[in-house]
Amino acid sequence: MKHNLNNVKKITFLLSLLILIGSSIKAQKPMDEKAKKAQLKELKKMKPEQILSLKENISKKNDELKNMQSEIENNRNIAQNLGTQLLATKQTNDSLLVVVYSLQNEVEVASKAAAQYAVMANSNNGKLTDAMKKGAYFRIQLGAYKTGALNKSMDLAGVESEKGDGLNKYLFGFFKSLPEAEKVRNDFTKLGIADSWVVGYNNGTRILKEEAAEILKKKK
């Protein structure tokens, strides 16, 4: 009777060990009944100390597996965080590139405008000749003041003063095309002279820029 009881205990222990072995190899294909019986038969042949050693090894492997799973999860979180940081960095870099390209474009426009203004300024020191005043044309007015002179921040070579309506008016350039005059006026705005505007003339007399444009259109 005692011998049978010991056998029952041993079989129960072996079955428990078999379950533990099965749980440690979840990633593998589940064993069928025939394989389980074969493994149980092999376990029955083992000595108690071998079984205990096997159980300890399986327990260690399970612990190692849990540690590896935890490390994998940590690495996955780190990778996700790095991915988020990389995306944010890329978006920041893209934004900076847009700013850089915009600044490069502004510098290019300002350089071209400066070269153009230098040519205009050196031509008769900005003053119009009698021949230039014939017909319709456009100029850029930089400011108009009752007293005083042009603000030093707008003190450009080639600027001509003109008195009218009790004001000192400061003019720049000579254009036979309204779009060309407007383009240069926009360049002045980019250079910090925000209050400039285009004015029209016909035979030296100031008129509306739209009227000057219409006169030039009729002559084409």
Task: Provide a descriptive summary of the structure in words.
- The protein is an alpha+beta fold.
- It contains five helices and five strands.
- It has a five-stranded antiparallel β-sheet, with helices on one face.
- α1 runs parallel beside α3.
- The termini are far apart.
- The mean pLDDT is 75.
Question: How are the elements arranged and paired?
Answer:
Layout: H1 2-24, H2 33-45, H3 48-122, E1 136-145, E2 160-164, E3 167-175, H4 178-190, E4 197-202, E5 205-207, H5 209-219
Antiparallel strand pairs: 1-3, 1-4, 2-3, 4-5
Helix pairs in contact: 1-2, 1-3, 3-4
Helix percentage range: 55-70%
Report the span from N to C terminus.
Answer: 127 Å
Biggest beta sheet attributes: 5 strands, antiparallel
Which geometry do the CA atoms define? rod-shaped
> What is the tally of beta strands?
5
* Main structural class: alpha+beta
Give me the Rg, rounded. 46 Å
Strand order of the largest sheet: 2-3-1-4-5
**Count of separate DSSP helical elements:** 5
Strand fraction band?
A: 15-25%
Low-confidence stretches: none
SSE string: HHHEEEHEEH
Average pLDDT, rounded to a whole number, is: 75
In short:
This protein has 220 residues and is an alpha+beta fold. Helix content is 61%, strand content 15%.
Keywords:
alpha+beta, 5-stranded antiparallel beta sheet, 61% helix, 220 residues, rod-shaped
